[in-house]
Amino acid sequence: MQEELRMVTEPVVVQAIINGERVDTEKRYTRENPANPEEIVGYGPVNTREDAVRAIDAAAAAFPAWAQTPLRERIAHMRRAIARFREAIPELVPLLSREHGKPVYDAQGEMFVSLAWMDYACDIAEEALAEKVEQHENGKTIITRDPMGVVAAITPWNYPLALSTIKIAPALIAGNTMVLKPSPFAPLAVSKAVEWMAGEFPAGVLNMVHGDADVGVELTTNPKVAKIAFTGGTKTATHIMKSASDTIKNMTLELGGNDAALVLSDFDVNDERAMRRLVISNFLTTGQICMIAKRVYVHRSIYDAFVEKYIEAANKWIRVGDAFHPDVTIGPVNNLPQVRHVERLIEDARSRGAKVIPLGRILDENVFAKGYFMQPTVVLGAGYDDPIVVEEQFGPTVPVLPYDDEEQGIQLVNNSIYGLTSSVWGEEEHALRVARRIEAGTTMINTAAVQGLDIRYPFGGFKQSGIGREYGVEGLLGYTELHVINVPKVGELPNIPE
């Protein structure tokens, strides 16, 4: 994506979208630039619970006609919405970088993933959603994939466009309507994109509200909502599940991860490209990705050599600075509470005797001092049960720990409440054998995180990393209900006494 960027320096104001109309609110919240918190990037609306009810009602009213719209027409609407999204990329990329903090190349990557998935969902829809008819000795059975109804989608700040479009495209193509609630920590680019996309659908099909916890409560408890699609923290998901239990809503939950990288004894520590991929898998987007490798276990026989080469590779790749600096690879942390969380884990590790080693270089000390920046670190000597190891850091730090044999390594990887993604590094056949024993929704070989993501295949987690799958055919079918229609042969029913 080499489009010339269109930088807007004036604060951006976004609104809610309810029944095809922009809705202003008296109260607004501000979104600062995490690289320079004194700079206001824009303002978002603080919607009320009543606004959420209106949006849900609009989606419910629009559902019957949209569900009955022929699939090819729904796909055509989506392709026009994708075209609007694509046209807006030169404006969306710098806006996302300013409000989120991620470097321009990273924001462009998010646009690429968003478009690739939406295009793919359109491409596979006719085949995936086609009804199946089976003739058999008892007559005929028809199996259809029917839309569910109103979808409430709640999305996080780390990949706001990718994690919204991952829900919008399959839900709407399948015939559902939607109310989307973005995160207040990165609301602007996604709101602009949804505003432009919503105009390509009938009023009420795609709605968007912002707001506090009471808005989220309405989205998860309202009886007109049939499905909840949530990406975020496991703790929040437990509240959502409780809220949704009274009406037994369908849910797709993509939650936290404490993803492990297992480095086998036959990994080549002198493979500079592989080591660079591992570093990137730890620190891309400043470590703020659910599927980032957050703990690294290295066979003790190569541990010392690995650490030396890892630090060398990290120091070459990591350059911390403003999102628009031409040499930057890592930007600021998105928000101050997240900085405090990561700092707490690092200080706790240090207090327990671990060694904390800074990585990379800071491009501009003055810029660094102003924003929510942290210098990336590697933590050596932590205990297997220390908080820096067992908790999800979601920031620019990673513990590297030794293990003694393969059985112990596998046990350490699996010893977590999470199981989102994982990676195994070493000779390919050996790594594949080990990968089959890892408890995770995705295991990658000699790569990790976004570098190994393929939107054609399902993505989701084991254990407390979530329920259901996104991406792939499964990500589309997850927004449908199976409907079985039986047509028995007349007179061929079992004998039933009169």
UniProtKB/TrEMBL annotation:
The active site is at E254. One of its GO terms (molecular function) is oxidoreductase activity, acting on the aldehyde or oxo group of donors, NAD or NADP as acceptor. Gene3D superfamilies: Aldehyde Dehydrogenase, Chain A, domain 1, Aldehyde Dehydrogenase, Chain A, domain 2. It comes from the Bacteria. The keyword Oxidoreductase applies. Residues 27-483 form the Aldehyde dehydrogenase domain. Keywords: Oxidoreductase. Pfam families: Aldedh. Belongs to the aldehyde dehydrogenase family. This is Aldehyde dehydrogenase. It comes from Alicyclobacillus hesperidum.
